[in-house]
TrEMBL record:
Residues 44-66 are annotated as: Disordered. InterPro entries: Quino_amine_DH_bsu (IPR011044), WD40/YVTN_repeat-like_dom_sf (IPR015943). The chain crosses the membrane at residues 20-42. This is WD40 repeat domain-containing protein.
Length: 339
């Protein structure tokens, strides 16, 4: 993959947009850029809020998810935690025999898909919660499996239909393989690359799968994180057939999520001891409004949306989960989380 991406003309280019991020108050741009399609931004604009900072839970929005499903420690167990109290709900769920949980992602039907790996193969299970939020059932998805090495770089995303699972495995030298498999039928497609790079931050919008391409080779002394989109309805093959749509600005560690309408990217940025969720319009590359901003000392390692695509969860290297609607939650014992 060549990783090339031509910026628009001066005045409308990505470079100009990064040099002067639109002030928080210019929320009307987001409404225009999104056109009412991206729930995670539209909900904030509709409420009239320009920026959301960390406030006591009692004063915050109560419409968000109530529970977080997370992988604990070395992947030996799943836990469900209450967003506001930080306490576990129900008992931990042990990983399948001789396997370790790797990744967890929310599906549109309210369930969660959990990946587990052992001996060069990744299998998937569906987790459902009961009315109280505790684990109710962990059922295997026998037709869905991916062959390859699951590493610390591996990532997963589940389409809103709950069926299509995208997962990234790696060969030696940091060579990635992106595979999409149907949980119902077992049908699969794979895209590979010959260039060492991290393929992360997978997210869905219809048949479009977005990811962040982060080559191991530095450009100008830093790693350039590029958001690309892949049409999964097209023929499989080389990952370079994906389309570059946005270069992430300074302060990004490569964590971003695609809006459900496929027209907006929300990136997690860390600067000046603050974690910010910033919207960008794909068609122009320009920054839009700030969804929310909280104090945080670490880098953003993951941004993920809830089942409805309305609320965002941030896993940061400061050992905390940051979210809209509640105080940050301690997460130094967690390796992945979804809500």
């Amino acid at each position: 993959m060549d990783g090339k991406h031509k910026d628009p003309a001066p005045g409308g280019g990505l470079g100009a947009a990064w040099r002067g991020i639109v002030p928080i108050g210019v929320a009307s741009f987001v409404a225009l850029a999104i056109g009412g399609g991206v729930d995670i931004v539209h909900r904030h604009q509709k409420s009239g809020e320009k920026e959301r900072s960390a406030q006591p839970a009692a004063e915050r929005d109560e419409t968000g998810p109530r529970h977080v499903v997370a992988i604990r420690g070395a992947g030996g167990a799943l836990v469900v935690r209450d967003v506001r109290s930080g306490r576990d709900v129900g008992l931990p769920v042990a990983a399948p025999r001789a396997q370790r949980f790797q990744r967890v992602a929310a599906a549109g039907d309210g369930s969660f898909v959990v990946a587990a790996a052992a001996s060069g193969q990744v299998t998937f299970q569906r987790l459902r919660l009961n009315e109280d939020g505790g684990p109710e059932e962990l059922a295997a998805l026998p037709k869905a499996a991916v062959t390859g090495a699951s590493t610390a770089w591996s990532d997963m995303a589940v389409a809103p239909d709950g069926d299509r699972i995208a997962y990234v495995t790696y060969q030696s030298g940091g060579i990635g393989r992106l595979e999409v498999v149907s949980a119902q039928t077992g049908q699969r497609k794979a895209w590979t690359t010959k260039t060492p790079a991290r393929v992360s931050s997978l997210s869905w919008a219809g048949a479009t799968l977005s990811f962040v391409w982060s080559p191991t080779r530095k450009v100008g002394g830093r790693i350039v994180h590029q958001v690309r989109t892949l049409d999964t309805a097209a023929a499989p093959g080389d990952l370079k057939t994906s389309k570059p749509v946005l270069k992430l600005p300074e302060g990004s560690s490569g964590a971003a999520v695609l809006g459900r309408d496929g027209r907006t990217i929300v990136a997690g940025l860390a600067q000046n001891a603050q974690i910010t969720l910033q919207a960008f319009a794909i068609d122009t590359g320009r920054p839009g409004g700030v969804l929310w901003r909280q104090k945080g000392a670490g880098q953003v390692t993951r941004v993920s949306a809830d089942h409805a695509g309305e609320h965002l969860l941030v896993l940061a290297s400061d050992g905390r989960l940051h979210m809209d609607g509640a105080q940050p939650m301690p997460a130094d014992d967690l390796v992945d989380a979804a809500w």
